[in-house]
Amino acid sequence: MRLGLIGLGRIGAFHAQTLADLDAVDSLVVTDAVPAVTKEVAERVGAQPVDSVAELLAAGVDGVLVAAATDTHPELVLAAVEAGLPVFCEKPLARAVTDAVTVARRVQESGVPVQVGYPRRFDPAFLAARAAVESGELGGLHTVRSTTLDPAPPPAAYLAGSGGIFRDCAVHDFDAVRWVTGREVVEVYATGSDRGDPLFTGIGDVHTAAVILTLDDGTLGVVSVSRGNPRGYDVRLELHGTADSAAAGLDDGLPLRSLEPGVTFPAGPPHDFFMERLAAAFRAELAAFTEVVAGARPSPCTVQDALEVAFIAEATTLSRQEHRPVRVEEVRP
Questions:
Q1: DSSP letters spanning 229-271
Q2: Nearest CA to 225 among 118, 171, 151, 149?
Q3: Cα torsion for 78, 81, 87, 93, to the nearest 10°?
Q4: What's the whole-model pTM score?
Q5: CATH code assigned at 296
Q6: Element (DSSP H or E) covering residue 318
Q7: What pLDDT, on a 0 to 100 scale, did the predictor assign at position 95?
Q8: Are residues 152 and 92 both part of a single domain?
Q9: How are the residues of the chain apportioned to helix, strand and coil, as percentages rounded to the nearest 5?
């Protein structure tokens, strides 16, 4: 299988190495807006460098991965779809929800498979959490708690173009809650604090946020996200039901220090970055895309899934701004 990869920044370069290591990938074509980056990554992973997206699309690839800047996602996804090529697109489909709706509509009309990058769907513990809900072993769910704490904020330029903490960071929590529970979010209430940090104050964003989600069956979701957790990268999901409780993310790398006398859990060292914490999930996610390209499976995370998450992010952004509960239906175009 011959794949094309567009965008070789932090996540794109990481994907390049992962793809090069997959048995299903025979050859890889790569390109980036910065020619020197294209050359360096191509040499490191043994890929073919090309100078443009058009050249990549014409290079005989069987599928395309989009890991470029968010603002380019709509154009790049649609260019690949119009060429009849299956696409893997890093989240989100678009920065603006109206653009995401347009992309989703055109993708659905085309019939070309598109997979959106939400790696927690491929993490072994999150898979087990979904299975526990589906089997009914937890009883009826009443509370779901999802956590994402980054060790440190991304660069200022990235934050300025990210769309805010709900659209950029908490979307992983929103997707995990939808996917694991199998339910839809109908209402949100969000709040946040910039912690007096001018990095966030100046762009109207927040450093730390909390969201209450109401699901369509009455289950409550509690989402906690932050751009600064010096102890490490913390990703967890707790499920509380009428028969049992369970959690994903409670391994020895959990970046949390117990104050209970004599307790040695977690033994550490703490997870320090998302690419380390979710390495196995990223590999499984891209392996799944090779199966999508081969026609062996449908997309495991569709544009419609991504669109539903975008609506939740839009609703939470509005909720924080207006200090009120927001029904998700309010933000649907």
A1: -TT--EEEEEEEESS-EEEES-STT------STT---S-SPPP
A2: 149
A3: 30
A4: 0.95
A5: 3.40.50.720
A6: helix 303-322
A7: 87
A8: no
A9: 40, 20, 40
Given a contact cutoff of 8 angstroms between Cβ atoms, the answer to whether 115 and 88 are in contact is yes
pLDDT at residue 158, rounded to an integer: 87
Q: Rounded to whole angstroms, how far apart are CA atoms 64 and 86? A: 6
Compute mean pLDDT per 10 residues along the chain, 333 residues long, and list them.
Answer: 96 97 98 97 98 97 96 96 98 92 96 98 98 98 98 90 92 98 98 94 96 98 97 97 98 96 96 93 98 98 97 98 98 91
Cα torsion angle, 268, 269, 274, 275, sign: negative
Locate tokens 């526990």: which residue?
132
Say what the pLDDT of residue 157 is.
Answer: 87
C-alpha to C-alpha distances, 71 to 94, 191, 310, 318, nearest whole angstrom: 6, 26, 15, 21
152 and 110 share one domain:
no
Kindly report the CATH number assigned to the domain that includes residue 231: 3.30.360.10
Same domain for 246 and 215, yes or no, is yes
Q: What is the mean pLDDT of the chain?
A: 96
What pLDDT, in 10s, does the model give residues 133-153?
Answer: 999 999 999 999 999 999 999
DSSP 72-137: GHHHHHHHHHHTT--EEEESPS-SSHHHHHHHHHHHHHHT--EEEE-GGGGSHHHHHHHHHHHHTT
Q: Are residues 40 and 138 in the same domain?
A: no
State the residue range of the domain holding 288: 2-118+283-302
Q: Are residues 170 and 78 in the same domain?
A: no
